[in-house]
Amino acid sequence: ETMAPVKVFGPAMSTNVARVLVCLEEVGAEYEVVDIDFKAMEHKSPEHPFGQIPAFQDGDLLLFESRAIARYVLRKYKKNEVDLLREGDLKEAAMVDVWTEVDAHTYNPAISPIVYECLINPLMRGLPTNQTVVDESLEKLKKVLEVYEARLSKHDYLAGDFVSFADLNHFPYTFYFMATPHAALFDSYPHVKAWWERIMARPAVKKLAAQMVPKKP
Question: Is pTM, for the whole model, over 0.70?
């Protein structure tokens, strides 16, 4: 039987929407992206209380919070060859959780301000880059990348020697970071750079990356 495609509300260029879409691509699910007009703010509805993107609909189920949506997708469509949460193995699942938290609370707060200041503010909002914010964030990011370099010198991926949701979570902001003038920073961390290249070589990631290239207005 064919299931109706799930719906993702929000533009593919959004980092949080991309987090969900890359998981849908990895599992080969049917989905439809419903773009949302930011200016109209039509995504503030009673079912969707915080006005966040993405929102996600599967039949009568409506979800928000991109990491929760992505986990739902990975559970619903899990196949033996695509097990990105590793929930069958307590220790592996724990490591996936650990590095997903590291992404949310340590990596993203260091890398995302650089993306905002170098790409999103100047290209989409017409705001100048705040170099002080960029410099402070680069210092934070270097400390984070030192930890990642040590981890990835021992394992091919963050949670172990298997690709997981933890790695994919790093895709959207790192992808945009690589379009900033600071992309060469990763050259100083060869194991991190090799890990990033392994992620970028994945068909699901390649497909999504092609839709996310920032276009100048």
Answer: yes
For residue range 153-193, what is the model confidence (pLDDT) as tens digits? 999 999 999 999 999 999 999 999 999 999 999 999 999 99
What digits encode the pLDDT tens for the residues 36-94? 765 554 555 555 555 678 889 999 999 999 999 999 999 999 877 779 999 999 999 99
Residues 6+ apart with CB under 8 A from 69: 8, 20, 54, 56, 63
168 lies in some domain:
yes
User: What is the CATH classification number for the domain harbouring 172?
Assistant: 1.20.1050.10
**pLDDT tens digits, residue range 110-120?**
999 999 999 99
State the Cα angle at 76 between 71 and 91, rounded to 5°. 55
Kindly state the DSSP code that residue 159 receives in the 8-state scheme. S
Q: 10 with 54: CB under 8 angstroms?
A: yes
3-state SS assignment for residue 21: helix
Same domain, 73 and 99: no
Q: How many CB atoms lie within 10 A of CB 103?
A: 25
Q: CA-to-CA distance for 212 and 214, rounded, in angstroms?
A: 6
Strands (E), the chain: 6-9, 31-34, 55-58, 61-64
pLDDT for 109: 97
